[in-house]
């Protein structure tokens, strides 16, 4: 997939609060298909929160409230992701997310990547094995782990753990990947590998990425928006 003029995510008039704390004030944003869109801005401005509006991850937080709409083009059709007919498990499969701190599950490297497939009800071991290998290759990790797939994933380095988390997100072939400061806990070498990986993933999906690091955004992103005091500013 290459960047085109199709709109993958259309967010309109998003207003979001945690209790009395209004974090987002009337945000509207178009995310282009096959592109990397970066969201930057000072700390505490709502960048991570904005990502969670694209996969409804905020909904379990007590007192959190949202107004506005988010439409995502999934499987070739426009979906209002807040419409009651939208299936949350399907949405979470199609819109993957990777967090700031790598969060491998307490199990083997192989089982970490296979986990979302099992959750999706896939039981064919040959199919799972192929998908795990493909995702680990896509995440630039296969060569480093192919001989230690049964090892506990928590023994990997920080950069490897983050690539494992990216592989775990990729294994269900998401159409959108939300990356929340994916390199902020990593050193320069691990960051460089993940930046190259992110750019390569444009072939497979549309990416929305939060980053503090403006140099990184210039290296990686096709489009860049800034959040300031809950308002989006086109950078
Ligand atoms: N689960 C939550 N419950 C209550 N308030 C929250 C929650 N998560 C975030 N907030 C508050 O919402 C505001 C925005 O936080 P958010 O993490 O979205 O900002 P950010 O721009 O991503 O910050 P940073 O760059 O430091 O990660 C902050 O005031 C934060 O304290």
Précis, in short:
The chain is about 30% helix and about 30% strand.
Description:
The structure is a single chain. The longest helix has 14 residues, at 125-138. The protein has a single domain (7-234), classed as P-loop containing nucleotide triphosphate hydrolases (Rossmann fold), CATH 3.40.50. Strand 1 and strand 2 (21-32) form a beta hairpin. The strands form 2 sheets. A 6-stranded mixed β-sheet has the order 6-7-8-3-9-10. A 4-stranded antiparallel β-sheet has the order 2-1-4-5, with no helix packed on it. It has 235 residues and is of the alpha/beta class. Helix 3 (109-119) runs parallel beside helix 6. The chain has 8 helices and 10 strands. Bound molecules: adenosine-5'-triphosphate. Residues 18, 21, 23, 41, 43-49, 61, 212 line the site of adenosine-5'-triphosphate. This is Phosphate import ATP-binding protein PstB 1.
């Amino acid at each position: 997939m290459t960047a085109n003029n199709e709109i993958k995510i259309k967010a309109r008039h998003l207003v979001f609060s945690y209790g009395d704390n209004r974090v987002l004030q009337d945000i509207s944003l178009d995310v282009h298909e096959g592109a990397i869109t970066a969201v930057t801005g000072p700390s505490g401005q709502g960048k991570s929160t904005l990502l969670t509006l694209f996969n409804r991850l905020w909904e379990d937080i007590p007192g959190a409230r949202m107004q506005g709409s988010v439409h995502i083009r999934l499987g070739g059709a426009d979906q209002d992701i807040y419409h009651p007919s939208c299936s949350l498990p399907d949405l979470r499969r199609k819109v993957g997310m990777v967090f700031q701190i790598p969060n491998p599950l307490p199990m083997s490297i192989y089982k970490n990547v296979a986990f979302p497939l099992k959750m999706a009800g896939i039981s064919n071991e040959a199919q799972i094995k192929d998908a795990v290998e493909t995702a680990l290759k896509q995440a630039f990790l296969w060569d480093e782990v192919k001989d230690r797939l049964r090892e506990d994933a928590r023994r990997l380095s920080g950069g490897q753990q983050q690539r494992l988390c990216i592989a775990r997100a990729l294994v269900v072939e998401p159409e959108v990947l939300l990356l929340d400061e994916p390199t902020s806990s990593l050193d320069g070498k691990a960051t460089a590998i993940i930046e190259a990986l992110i750019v390569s993933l444009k072939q497979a999906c549309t990416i929305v990425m939060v980053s503090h690091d403006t140099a990184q955004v210039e290296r990686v992103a096709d489009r860049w928006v800034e959040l300031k005091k809950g308002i989006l500013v086109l950078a």
